[in-house]
Structures are given as C-alpha cells and as structure tokens.
Design brief:
Blueprint: E1 29-30, E2 51-57, E3 60-62, E4 75-81, E5 87-92, E6 96-97, E7 103-114, E8 120-121, E9 134-139, E10 146-147, E11 167-172, E12 175-177, E13 193-198, E14 206-210, H1 220-229, E15 238-243, E16 246-250, E17 254-256, E18 270-275, E19 282-283, E20 304-308, E21 311-313, E22 327-331, E23 341-345, E24 352-353, H2 356-363, E25 370-375, E26 378-382, E27 387-388, H3 390-396, E28 404-409, E29 433-437, E30 459-463, E31 469-474, E32 503-515, E33 531-538, E34 545-546, E35 560-572, E36 591-600, E37 605-609, E38 616-617, E39 627-632, E40 635-639, E41 662-667, E42 674-675, E43 693-697, E44 700-702, E45 714-718, E46 728-732, E47 747-752, E48 755-759, E49 764-765, H4 767-772, E50 782-787, E51 794-795, E52 813-817, E53 820-822, E54 836-840, E55 846-851, E56 858-859, E57 865-870, E58 873-878, E59 887-888, E60 905-910, E61 916-918, E62 931-932, E63 935-936, E64 941-947, E65 949-951, E66 964-970, E67 978-982, E68 992-996, E69 1001-1002, E70 1027-1029, E71 1035-1037, E72 1041-1045, E73 1051-1056, H5 1077-1086, H6 1101-1125
Antiparallel strand pairs: 1-3, 2-4, 5-7, 6-7, 7-8, 7-9, 10-12, 11-13, 14-16, 15-18, 16-17, 19-21, 20-22, 23-26, 24-25, 25-28, 26-27, 29-30, 31-32, 32-33, 34-35, 35-36, 37-40, 38-39, 39-41, 42-44, 43-45, 46-48, 47-50, 48-49, 51-53, 52-54, 55-58, 56-57, 57-60, 58-59, 61-65, 62-63, 64-66, 67-68, ...
C-alpha cells in the first residue's frame, strides 16, 4: 500500500491524536530494623573459619510500583568472632537443698540444642561439652538474708559500638528479707547488679546493593534450546534473561570487596523473563511521483516532482530501525520551454466595393463609392519570427485578429475629413480636459450639410485622467488575525505547537477607492494592500495556578496506621477561559489537601527502664529496717533505630504504655516467711474461653520462725477476652486515593492500602504478634489506577484563505477555518467558539460592457415597412451594489468586446395599415407537472409562453392568425391544483374565475363541467306579469303586488294590492333590493296620459307597432352614415398610432 490523495478515502478521517499515560513509580515502604541476631557462620551447612556475621532484617510493608520503583536493602550484616550455628539453651529448675531444709543445694538444668533459626535439633550438633545437668545454689535458712533471682538482661544500650562507647546490658536482683541474728548477712549493693558488653561490633554495617534489572535479552543457552524445539532462530518472543550487578556496600564508606558481605544473603544476579517481541519499523511504499507537467513551461524555472512515505509502526525492542529518508525530490526530465507565438497581420487591402451590377440594382447609380470590404492576411510567427501553425497562436491568444472589415469609399456627396489630430496634453488639474480636432477637406468645406457640427463634429473633448483619489473604509473590521505559523517546507504541514491562539495580531477593514468623479478604481491607488490595518489583541487564557505541593507531614499515629497530609494553595485565579480550579478549602486560605495512609512500627519508639532501686521503708523510725516501702526507677523514650540509643521526646512513645516510675515494695523482717516473685501467667488459648483458667506460681524461699503458714504459692484466674486474654488480627486500611508521582497532575498512579496488627481491644501492636499466630496475610497491597487528565482543546491550524465570494465590487468576503482535533476533556480549557474567521475582500471596481436601448426603427425613405434598429455598447464601472450608479470609462478597462458587432444592429419593421402585427413573446410560465390528487408521476415538467397578433384593420381580421403558443420541458416542476372562485351575487350576476393553488388567477386548469353559474335564473322562468327572479332563486312579485301561490309552491300570478301607491302594503313583500328594469319602466309610464298597459298588466297592441317602426328608422340611419363617411383607400398612409397592448399568459395549456 502507498499513500494517495486524502480525497480518495471515504468517510471521516481518524483522529490524529489520542490520550496516553506513563505509569508513575513509587518506592516501597519498609519496616524498622529488627534486633541484631547471634553470631553465626556464613554457611551453617559448611561452617569454616572463626569469622561469622550477625544480621538484622526489615520487611516490606508496601511493594514498589512502576518501572522506576525502588526498594532499599532488607538485610544488614556485621562481622563477628567465634560464630556458631548451634547453641545450647538451658532452663533452670528450683533449688533443692543437699542436706536438710536450707543451706547449699543444687538446681536441675534442662538444656536443648537450637539452630540459628531457633528450632530444636539434635544435641550432637551443638558444641562439646554440653552444659552441666546440675548447678549449685543456696536456700536461705530462717535467719539468713533473702535475695531475689536475677532479672533478665536489659536491652543493649547501643545497636553497635564505636570508639567512644560500647553497648552495655545490665541485670539486677533485690533484697527480699533482711538477715536476723546469726544469719547470713545481705550482699553489698554492688553485688546486686551485673554488667556485660553487648553489640560490640562496629557501626559500619555491610549490605548488598543491586543495580536495576537490565532489559530482557536473549540467552544463548535458551536460544540453543529453542532451536532444538523448532524455533525459527530469531529470538522474537520467548524466554530470556535479565541481569543486574550486585556489589557489597559498607555504610558511610561505599562499595567494598564482595567477600566482605555474607554470601548467603547475596541477591540474585540473573532471573528469567519473557522476551518482548521485536517490532520492526513498518513504512508504506513511496507514493506515486507527483506528475510532471505534460505541457511545455514558460520561463526557465526548475520543475521538481516529489514522493513520500509514512511510518505505520515505529521500531521497538531491538527491531529494524526506520529509514532516514521519508521524502524524496527530483527534477522533472524532458520539460520543454514553451515557444512564444504571436499574430503578425499584414496591411489592409484597398477597399473593395460591391460589384457594379449589384450596386446598380440597389442604388440606381453608377458612382464607384459607398460601403465595401477590405481584407488582410494574418500569419502566426514564433518569437524568432519563424512561421508556425495557426493553432499555436490560437492556444496562446484569445482569438484571431479580424481578416475582413468594413470600409467606405467616399462618394461625391459625402463629407470628407482629415484624420483626427492627437489629443492635447493634460495639465495636473483634475478638472482639466483634453481635445482633438479634424478639418473638412475638398468640396465638403462648401457643403451646407457638412457644416452641421452635431452631425459632423470637428472637435472631440474628454476629461483628463485624474491622479487624486478618495478612499473611505468599507464594511466591518475583520476578526483579529494572528500572524501565520511557519510551515514545514517539505509537507506543508503546520509545525505542532507553533500556531498561536492568543496575543497581538492585526485586524483589517477594506478600502473603497474612487476618483474625483466618484467612479470606483482599483484600491491600490489609495492603499498598497487595499486595507486599513490596526493592531489588536486576543487575550490569552490563564489557568488556575496553585503552588507546588508542600512536603508530606509526619504520620498522625506513632504506632500503627495514621494519615500523612500535604497541601497546595491558590496563587492565581483563572480568567479569559482558562482551566478552572479544583475544589478549594476556602476557609483555610484556598488550600487543596491530599492525604495518604501511613504506617509506623509500634516498636520504633519504646520505653527503656532502668532497674528498681532498693526498697525504702516508709517509716520515720530508723530503728525499723523492714516492712512496707517504695522503690523507684528511671525511664526514658528511645528510638530503636538509633544505634546510640539516645533518649528522644517522651511524647513519641505510647503514653498508654508508660511504665511506672515508682511502686510499693516490702522488705521482710528476719522472722517472716519469704516467698519468691510470682512467675509468669500461663498462656490462655487463642479462643479466650472464660472456662479456661490461667495459673501463676511462686515458691518458698525462707520459712518463718513461727509455725504460721506462708502465703499462697499459686494463683488462678479465668481467661477473659480483652482483660488478660487477647486475640489478634490483621487490619487493612481502605484503598487510598490514586497517588501520582511527585507534582504529576494526572495519569497512571497507584492505590495503596496498609496492613497493621490490631489487638482485640483495638490497640495497635507489633506485626510480630500477628505473625506469631500464623494469620493469613492479604496479598495485594497496591493496585494500579488512572487519574484522567484534563485535556485542553486541541485545534488544527487555519486553512488558507478562500477565494473572494465576489470577483469585484462591494460585499465580497474571504474566510478561513480550523478544526477540532481533540475535544476538551474534564476541566480542560474549552474549545473557542470562533472556528471560522472572515474578512472583507479588497473593493475592486467592476467593469462590464453595457448594451444601450434599441433606437427607433429607422426606415429608408418610407413611413412603414422594413428598417434597421441600432444600439450602443459602452464600458461601465460600478461597485457591484444596486444603489450605485454606473459610470462610463475607457473601453480598454473592459477588455475584449464579448459580443460580435452584429448584435448592435438588427432588422425591424413598422407595420403598414392592414398588416397583422405580431407582439413579443410573453415570459415563460412557471414549471408545472401533471398531477393526480396532488401527486405527480412525472420527472420532467412543462412551461409555456404565447404571443398574439394585433389587428391593424378590421377588414382583414380573419386573415390574421390566432394566438401562438410554445411549450418546452423543464426541471423542478411543482404540483398545482385548481379551484373555481366566485364573487357575491349582484343583480343575479356574479364573477366566476379559476384560481391556482399558489394564489394566481388563471384562464385554464379548472374543469369546465364544474364551473359555477355566473347568472342566476329561476326554474321555471318567471313569465307571469309583474314577477321577477329573486335572490333566493324563486319567482316573486314587484312592489305593490302580492304573490298568489299554487299548491306545488310555484307562483300562480301577481295580484295588485289596493292603495299600495300611497302606503306600504301590509302583506309580505318579496321584492329584492334592486328592482328589475321592467319595474322601473312601469313606474315611468304610470304617470303618462297614454297607458301602454292594461289594468291587468298586459301590454297594449299599439305599443308593439310603434316599437317596430322605430327599429326600422334606426337601421336606415346607421347604413346611410356609413356610406357617407367611407373614403377611398390611399396608396400609402401613415399607420395609426398603436395603442400599447400588454398580454399576459399564465402558462396553462387549455387556453
């Protein structure tokens, strides 16, 4: 496939851009360090040498995300001396006396062998010899001093040792009872405490550091294996390997030799991976070369042709790269330069007259003068004057110069003149004129008719061209137009991001330019561009501006899960259609907050206690040295991650777990029974069943002097939930909001949740508690998420300006458009409403040839018959508007004459008396279809026109033809329906006409059979005397008569009402508003002495005789007048003045 013209593709083009996102990376969150472990061999399976390592660990609380997410090292080591992989762990029993009840005795030691993981193993693996099975001890007698057991060793004061200080541990014991007389005394206070060094290793920890995993690459071993399986040899998709570098790092120093770090904790350097498939670059084939011109080219410019190809798929994962050349250009070959051809006319031949025989028949004269013709030869020559084919000149020119023209050989009677002189020069004054002259020659100077200046002018005067022009603005200002962006020369494509949407631009207003006489001229005479230009500004939109994110605050909880907050605040509000602000906390200075869950290890800050002081007796009498008292100790809050173990703010430690600084104590007197400290409570089951009891015990250290029984040596209590028995469970937070990388406003992010261990009473505890109970841990602590980006409206560049809507004059407009490439998404900057810009075209004058009206028909020596009409052709200038009057200008401005000279002259006729004169054709009627019930089954309609004859004399009206009708097919016809219309009745008459559905009255189209009556008649006719037809269509009687009706409802006769002449009759009168004529005649004759009517209303006989005689006399008088007035017809006469006759034809075919 290869690129082709875009117009060949059907349908809308795909979007040229789309949204994408890059996954954000977050580092993982880790716990604090555990305590240092024992000194063990590097490899317990093969212990060698006397050097070992002590290690400490931390674990991942939340995994890293994204390609650049990073986790710190999880294991640190320090070298140590005398490592061991197995050790004896001994537990001591109660002291048994060797003799009697007190004094020297022994304890039974129970020893088990443990490996480096704390698991019990065979004793043969532990060092030889094993610890002894017995250990000497002493049971105080009744008067001896009693001392408690040693406490556990305290935690080490430092996590490592440096030059200035070492880590220390202490343990202590206290005096429980004083010695009596003769008894063994109490040890000194120094003997009540013991110290030992701990964590004596260096603070320079060692750990393995790794580089990021490299790309998945082909492994030669895997490739060989794949080849045997039948792979194609190219490692496209399959299994590969990833490698990374591993190096040993010493804290505060840097990279050291690899052998310094324990090999057992060395991270992997190679891991398998899935090879991504190679993607070669895919490009289309080159498009066809743009065509070279087939015709020859004018000038010597170099013509080039080009082709291009498009990248369909970019190369990826080591695939073949794209070619460098996507656009090629080359010069067109065999492009010839066009030769220039021109017409070369010869001189005109002498004027050739009409042959003499013909001229005699026409003019009756033998003089060789008058109108004739002259010819010339015209040839086509090239620019080097070589003869060429006529077709070559016709290709390059608009037409051929005339070969024949009319000429005149002056007759003796004609006026002869010299040639016109040149025009006089023009002055700078705009009102000046120029003139030229000619003179009469020969006998013409003495002829009277040649002296007539109107017919034969000797001077011609014209206005001089004026160099002063008047400009005035026309039309509205254009839109504000910004400067064009640059275009890529090879493709003509707009460079992305280069087109400005706002800023300073120009607006334009067209200039109408005219000369002093008000005639339009080219606008370049007034302004070089044809416009008035003015600077303008499109205001740029400003988005809502917020500050950068503040740094994250500290976790709201010192133990377990809390919240960290960061914020940003409003710096600048949006305006001019900028991107709006997010929802702001207006009460707090317009801030935007973001909160994420956080986790603090519950043992990160812990209380450290020193040993209890000796018991101080609460008695003012110093003689008493035993009894109840108090003892105290010092406490402090320390950061367990701090190697020096320095004290920190006590508020960082859990205030609910603050150890007591004082407690009550008792110092037994010499004669009292002494019991040991209570042991630990036995463990309750995980179910915390209240029916299950837990127990603690103590034993007798010294009996009393009296026979009184000592205090109890055991206690039990039920296992009550949340009091002395607790359950544990993992607590998961809700998923956080989508967290993005630093300062990223949108895109791919991660949602996280955190895991903590919670006691059944709601108190967060160390994760170890949940891990000891082997609770099931949730797997996924983070999931990817997407915050949709707000997308500003993306627009294409402006298209080129269109051609002007008018070729000249006022009202022309040009426009250009742009298109939405990517619509707005979310709260992005909206698309502008202005996608089309317009501006007025330069007002150029309109030049056109205008034909004048036909002159009157000029007859050659007669008053009627055939003649000639002429009209003028003028070059006129106007501005294209209806109201503007056109002005005449030089013919050269209109260019070549578009008509043949023959259209300036036509034959005409003046009808002689008795002729039939044919009118002009009427206008064509509207296009009409044949329709049935308003629906047409035709695609082609008809329209018609008519012309008729005006009869000049009534005698020959029969010889004139009737109306002439023409029809022609037409397109786009309409269906019409026709209805009869009628006016109101007046004297039993009304007007009836046919009307078309568009409101036009026509003379055809309605059905003749359905025509309403125009004259109303009674049926049967009203023949009775004094009766007439009423408006209701029945026969009634005149005024003064009453109707006598038959039984069938018809009028029988009219009876005179007595006294009706003087007063109104009492009977009902059915006469109409307007009496018929016979009623009026009766009223006239009624007062005469001669009564033409009988009393019963019948006409007398003598009236008929008088009427007949009068009619014969009238006929005689008309005939006599005609004979007297008739004149003989002359040979020629002036035709009577014709009265204009306007005929309109509506186009109906049934006229």
């Amino acid at each position: 496939s290869r690129p082709v013209e875009k117009t060949l593709c059907v349908g809308p083009a795909p979007l040229p851009s789309q949204l994408c996102n890059n996954p954000c990376s977050t580092d993982c969150i880790v716990s604090s360090w555990s305590a240092w472990g024992l000194c063990i061999h590097e490899n317990c399976r093969d212990p060698q040498g006397k050097k070992g390592f002590r290690t400490r660990q931390r674990h991942v609380l939340m995994e890293s995300t994204g390609p650049a997410g990073h986790c710190p090292h999880l294991v640190e080591s320090v070298p140590c001396e005398d490592p061991t992989c197995y050790r004896w762990l001994a537990s001591e029993g109660i002291c048994f006396p060797d003799h009697g009840k007190c004094g020297l005795g022994h304890r039974i030691l129970k020893a088990i062998c443990q490996n480096d993981h704390g698991e019990e193993v065979s004793g043969s693996l532990c060092p030889v010899p094993p610890p002894p099975e017995r250990k000497a001890c002493e049971i105080p007698c009744r008067m001896d001093c009693v001392v408690s057991e040693w406490t556990e060793w305290s935690s080490c004061s430092q996590s490592c040792s440096n030059k200035n200080s070492d880590g220390k541990q202490t343990r202590s014991r206290t005096i429980l009872a004083l010695a009596g007389e003769g008894g063994k005394p109490c040890p000194p206070s120094q003997a009540l405490q013991e110290h030992r060094l701990c964590n004596d290793h260096s603070c320079m920890q060692l750990y393995w550091e790794t580089s990021p995993w490299g790309p998945c690459s082909e492994d030669t071993l895997v490739t060989a294996l794949n080849a045997t399986i039948g792979w194609n040899g190219e490692a496209t998709c399959g299994v590969g390997i990833q490698t990374r570098r591993v190096f040993c790092v010493k804290s505060h120093v840097g990279q050291v030799m690899t052998k310094r770090c324990p090999d057992s904790t060395r991270p992997e350097t190679v891991r398998p991976c899935l090879l991504p498939c190679k993607k070669d670059c895919i490009v289309t084939a080159f498009s066809e070369w743009t065509p070279c011109p087939r015709m020859c080219q004018a000038g010597n410019a170099t013509i080039k042709q080009s082709r291009y190809r498009i990248i369909i798929q970019e190369a990826a994962n080591g695939g073949q790269e794209c070619p460098d050349t996507l656009y090629e250009e080359r010069e067109c070959e065999d492009v010839s330069l066009c030769p220039i051809y021109r017409w070369k006319p010869q001189k005109w031949s002498p004027c050739i007259l009409v042959p003499e025989s013909v001229r005699q028949g026409i003019m009756g004269s033998s003089e060789a003068c008058g109108k004739g013709l002259q010819t010339r030869a015209v040839s086509c020559v090239s620019d080097d004057n070589q003869l060429a084919e006529m077709i070559e000149c016709l290709k390059q020119t608009n037409g051929m110069p005339p070969l024949v023209q009319e000429c005149t050989v002056p007759c003796r009677e004609d006026c002869t003149f010299t040639a016109w002189s040149k025009f006089t020069p023009c002055s700078t004054n705009c009102e000046a004129t120029k003139s030229r002259q000619r003179q009469l020659t020969g006998k013409s100077r003495k002829k009277e008719k040649c002296q007539d200046a109107d017919l034969y002018p000797l001077v011609e005067t014209e206005l001089c061209p004026c160099g002063e022009f008047v400009s005035q603005p026309y039309g509205n200002w254009s839109d504000c137009i910004l400067p064009e962006g640059r275009r890529e020369p090879q493709r003509g494509l707009r460079v992305q991001g280069d087109s400005k949407e706002c800023g300073e631009g120009m607006r334009f207003q067209a200039v109408a330019c005219s000369d002093k006489n008000g005639r339009p001229v080219d606008p370049s005479f007034c302004s070089s561009s044809g416009y008035i230009q003015e600077k303008c500004v499109i205001p740029c939109p400003f988005d809502c501006k917020l500050s950068d994110w503040s740094s994250w605050g500290s976790c709201s909880s010192s133990c377990g899960i809390g919240v960290r907050i960061r914020s940003k605040w409003l710096k600048e509000k949006p305006y001019n259609g900028g991107r709006p602000c997010p929802k702001l906390d207006l009460k707090n200075q317009g801030q935007v907050h973001e909160a994420v869950p956080c986790y603090s290890e519950c043992n990160q800050y812990s209380w450290v206690v020193e040993h209890w002081s000796s018991c101080k007796i609460n008695n003012e009498l110093r003689s008493l040295r035993c009894g109840g008292g108090t003892q105290s100790r010092k406490i402090r809050c320390v950061n367990t991650a701090d190697s020096k173990g320095g004290a920190v703010d006590s508020n960082l430690c859990n205030q609910d777990e603050i150890p007591p600084e004082t407690q009550s104590c008792s110092l037994m007197c010499p004669n009292e029974c002494v019991m040991s400290e209570w042991g630990l409570w036995s463990k309750c089951p995980q179910s915390c069943d209240p029916h299950t009891m837990q127990r603690r015990t103590r034993h007798l250290l010294r009996p009393s002097l009296s026979s009184r029984t000592c205090a109890e040596d055991s206690q039990v209590q039920p296992c009550l939930l949340n009091e002395n028995c607790f359950q544990f469970q993992y607590n998961l937070t809700e998923w956080s909001t989508c967290q993005l990388s630093e300062n990223a406003p949108c895109g791919q992010g991660v949602r996280t949740r955190l895991l903590s261990c919670v006691r059944s009473d709601g108190k967060p505890v160390s994760m170890d508690q949940c891990e000891q109970h082997n609770l099931e841990k949730p797997q996924r602590m983070s999931i990817p998420c997407l915050v949709e980006c707000v997308v500003n409206c993306q627009l294409s560049g402006w298209t080129a300006w269109t051609e002007c809507s008018q070729t000249c004059g006022h009202g022309g407009r040009m426009s250009r458009t742009r298109f939405i490439i990517m619509p707005t998404q979310g709260e992005g900057r909206p698309c502008p409403t202005e996608l089309t810009q317009q501006r007025t075209c330069p007002v150029t004058p309109c030049y056109s040839w205008v034909l004048g009206n036909w002159s009157a028909c000029k007859l050659e020596g007669g008053d009627c018959g055939e003649g000639v009409q002429i009209r003028s052709l003028s070059c006129m200038v106007h501005n294209g508007s209806v109201s503007h009057a056109a002005g005449q200008v030089e013919d050269a401005l209109c260019g070549e004459m578009p008509f043949q000279v023959s259209i300036l002259k036509q034959l005409c006729s003046v009808p002689c008396p008795g002729d039939c004169h044919l009118t002009e054709w009427s206008e064509w009627s509207t296009c009409e279809l044949t329709c049935i019930d308003g629906r047409s089954f035709e695609t082609v309609g008809r329209q018609s026109r008519s012309r008729t004859f005006i009869i000049q004399s009534f005698e020959n009206q029969d010889s004139c033809p009737q109306q002439v009708l023409e029809t022609r097919p037409c397109a786009g016809g309409k269906c019409y329906h026709y209805t009869w219309k009628a006016s109101l009745w007046n004297n039993n008459e009304r007007t009836v006409w046919c009307q078309r559905s568009d409101g036009v009255n026509v003379t055809g189209g309605c059905s003749p059979q359905a025509r309403p009556a125009a004259i109303r008649q009674c049926i049967p006719a009203c023949r009775k005397p004094f009766s007439y037809c009423t408006q209701g269509g029945v026969c009634g009687c005149e005024k003064g008569y009453t109707e006598i009706m038959r039984s069938n409802g018809f009028l029988d006769y009219c009876m005179k009402v007595p006294g009706s002449e003087d007063k109104k009759a009492d009977v009902k009168n059915l006469s109409g508003k307007n009496r018929p004529v016979n009623s009026k005649i009766h009223d006239i004759f009624k007062g005469w002495s001669l009564q033409p009517l009988d009393p019963d209303g019948r006409v007398k006989i003598w009236v008929y005789g008088v009427s007949g005689g009068a009619f014969l006399i009238v006929i005689f008088l008309v005939f006599t007048s005609y004979l007297v007035c008739k004149k003989p017809k002359p040979h020629q006469s002036t035709p009577p003045q014709q009265k204009p006759l306007t005929l309109a034809y509506d186009g109906d075919l049934d006229m």
